[in-house]
Each structure stands twice: as C-alpha cells, then as structure tokens.
Amino acid sequence: MNSSSYKELEEPLKLIHKKFVSLDEREVRETKPLVRQVLVLLVTYMKEADDIFRELFYGLYFGGSFYHNLKIQNPDEFDIDFLLALPKCSECKILNCKCVEVEPGHVAGFLKFSLKRRFSPKFYEKFCLKGKVQSNLVFNWIKSLVCKALYRFKTEKHRIGTNDFWAVTPTTEISLYTECQPAVKICIKKGQKIIYADLAAAFRLDEHYWPGKSKSNSGFRSNPTNVKQFSIVPFCPKGCNGYWRPSFQAQEKLIISGKQTLKPALRLVKIMKSNLNHSVSSYVLKTLILQEADTFDWKNVCISDAFMFLLKKYVQCLKQGRVEYYWHKDVNLLDYMKKTTITNHCNEVVKLYLKIENGSKLNPLVAAEVILKQSSDYQIFITEWMIWKSQLYKKQISYIENKGVSSVGKQQFDGLRNVLDFFVTMANKKTLLV
Fold first, then answer.
1. pLDDT for 223-243, tens place per residue?
2. Where along the chain do its domains lie?
3. Which CATH number describes the domain made up of 7-21+256-369?
4. Which end of the chain, N or C, is less surrounded by CB atoms within 10 Å?
5. pTM, two decimal places
6. 50-254 has which fold?
7. What pLDDT, in 10s, does the model give residues 109-162?
8. 86: Cβ–Cβ under 8 A, 6 or more apart, which residues?
C-alpha cells in the first residue's frame, strides 16, 4: 500500500480521532476499577446463592470492544463473561473424557453441546434434555443468579425510572437493566456516571474441543493463534436450544493486537456508522479488520490510507450483501438485515466514500464533513482545526524569527503571518462554513 495516497487527510483524521473518537484516559482510569469492583462483589453473592455456580465458576473474562481497544467516545459499555469450567467426570475421574461432546451441528457457525448423565447427575438434571445441554436453561439460571445477587444490595433502595437501584457502596448503585440472550444487562450508576455491562455465561473449553478439529469439512477455521482456550455462550438459533455459539474473543484480541493504524482506522469507520445511524453491528466492522489483519504491515501504513482501505472494503461488503464470519466460511454476518436496508446503507456509504476520494486533495476537511456532519461535533472540529493550524503556523514563524527572516525572505514570511492571522480570526469566530 502506498502510504501517501491520502496524505491530505492524515492530520484531519488524527484530530478527529483524538477529539471525538478516542476514550478519555481519566474516564477510563475511573471506570475500569469501578466495573471490576461491582463484578467481584456480584460473583461473591452468586457463589453464595448457588452450589453449582460455585463449583463451575472459573473466573471473569473482560472482553468486547472496550477491552479489545476498539471502543469509541465513552467507556460506558462493557462485555463480561462468567467463565465456567466443566469439572472432572464423576465416573471417569478425568477432564476431557468422552462423556462430553462439543461438535458442529446442522446450523452453520453453531455447536452442539452434549454430555452423558454419568458425567454429573446434578448438572445433567438441571441443564440437559435428552443429553443436550440447553442454552435457554443455562441463560435463565445465570439471569436468576444475577437477580438474587442484586437483591443482596439492599442497604438502600431508590426508584429511578422503571428500574430498581441497590447500593453497592454509599456512592455506587446497581440495577438489572434488561435481558437479551445470551446476556443480562446491568446498569451501574455513580454520581452522573452511568455504565452498562452485558453479563453472559461462557463455558471455557480447551483445544481438545476446538470445533471441527476432527472434521475437515466442518467449515470452522483452525486456530491461527497460540491461545488454546475458547468458550461457548448460551445463544442459539430459534427453536434449537441444544446449540451454542462459539466465542473466540481471546484469539481475536491477539489477531488484531499490534496492528498500529488498523484500530484507529476502524474506530473512525465506527463513528461514521454511528453518526449515520446505520444498523450494522460493531462485530461486523470488527470482522473487517480480522480479515485484513495480516494483509499489510500496518506499522508502515498511515491512518488515512488505513481508513480509506477499510471504508472501501465496507462498501464492497455492503454491495455484495455479505460479510463472511471470520471463523466459519458459510456464515454471512449480514443475514440478520433486510436487503433493502443493506442497499440503503450501501448507497449512502458509496456517496460518502466518493466524496472523500474525489475531494480530499482540494479540501482536506472533507473527511470531517463526511464523518461528523450529522453531529454537533462537526462545528467543534472546525474550531479545533483552526486552533491547531494557528499553533502550527506560530511554531513555524517562531522558528523563522529565531533563524532570521532573511533565511526565507520577507515576502514568504509576511505570507505566513497573513495565513496565521486568518486561522486565528476563524478560530475566534468558532465557526466556518465549508
């Protein structure tokens, strides 16, 4: 990739990312320990409420866009799994025995989770139907435990909207917000800060159960990383409660790590999608960089080229109406969307892509117009851009003055001063029509 193809866009995109996309570090420092504090206490109460949970609980997995460094704007949404580990077989007395099976089924991208009664009679009675571990039963079980744990927070109770909040600390409150299998969403409130966390059960499995390991035609990709463990979560196609969705978050985090400009480029595409109110999921966009993680040496690709590359790939996928699931070649991640919706999204993104492609050399701010135009951030960006340009020209003028005006000539120096005066004036006006 030619790293100077869109050099005019480089500084505007960096400023957009810094001011309107990336997370505030102070907010991150405050939010991360707060979420962990709540979850540790929640797990403690869940263990006290249920013997099976206490026996199976392995640990918490902090995943999703925040922990994979793809979150945009605010650290206010988190995805956390209750990792559960299967015990040793009560009869075989070993792990990974043949009493447990996890294998691809007839629904592409999903797995069947089966076990024999002798593996664990109490587990079988609670969660199995005809040898299949029922995802809906496990989801309802976790939901009931979260609700029981929430009721332990009853030192103070406040009514806010339609949710009940219970005190975690004198300044922190927590409530059940909503549910959507496989996750239960809770709301954490501290002062004016409101945080949502999606909590899901996830059975932790090792490489012995990697999907399709013993079947070359399973459709699943082999593990491209050295992380051996993966998990399955209680989400299934309608009417197929014996099926589970595999989760390869740990592998995905490793695949996209250290890719330099690939992540900020994706965040820019995400903020554009958000401002357009498009219904394409964040995971679909994440899949784009999973597919392209090894296409280039991203350390040598500038943000502007990476952004335009991803935007073009996004356009191509919308035109085809297909984004292939990274882990299974037969799964289209856009299948949940209506064709008319995909077409409308495609037409809109194509126009914006062409606007940048055709206008970037004459107007480097065209990217800001495309990415931020639908939000109030656009006018703020223009002011920030004028301030940034003013500071840049001030540094140049100061350097020339120290070196001597004769080094560039009085006419060129006066020209720089006039440009500086223009940017200072425009910045003070706080608005500019592009």
1. 999 999 999 999 988 888 889
2. 7-21+256-369, 50-254, 376-429
3. 1.10.1410.40
4. C
5. 0.86
6. Beta Polymerase; domain 2 (3.30.460)
7. 999 999 999 888 899 999 999 999 999 999 999 999 999 988 887 644 544 444
8. 56, 95, 100, 203, 205
